[in-house]
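Section 3.1: Structural characterization of target chains.
Under the original work plan, the team committed to producing a structural model for every single-chain target entering the pipeline before any wet-lab resources were allocated. The record below documents one such target. The sequence was received from the expression subgroup and is listed exactly as submitted; it comprises 167 residues.
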Amino acid sequence: LDVAVALNWGEFLPFGAYKTYDYLLATAPTLEDGLMKAARYNGFVNDAFRPSLRRHRGQIWVDYTNCLDPQCNPPEYIEFVFACFLLRFRHTTGVAWRSLEIHFQHPPPRDLSEHHRIFQARVRFRQPVTRAILDPATLRIGQLLADAATSELLEHYVRGMLNGADV
């Protein structure tokens, strides 16, 4: 059994597989804008989990919370999501940026080699929250597909879908 299968799925799922959502995040001007859209519109792809951004002591914390059941954080799903976000934003910025740390609530697997290879950051387990810690300078990285008109159009569409409108 490949204990890192969730990380590998996140790595090999091609950009665009989430269609509208991928392009909504990728057409934002900066990584920060893309992450803010992810936090605002994550319900478009999953209404149970929600990312949030906040500044703390000179760092940016991106927390990932199960809004329906905070005690339910399936390790495979959480690792898949973190790998997807990180690798997609590396793709859309064209920059091999790294988180400062990644925190998971679950216990570590026996082999951490895939975690280190994919995240290229300190990975900590048995933490109180699921979190990626970023350097604030990372948020200013521009995105290669940034396009204000497309971003606005996709945001309007996603907002309408989330509100049950006929768009």
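The chain has a mean pLDDT of 92.
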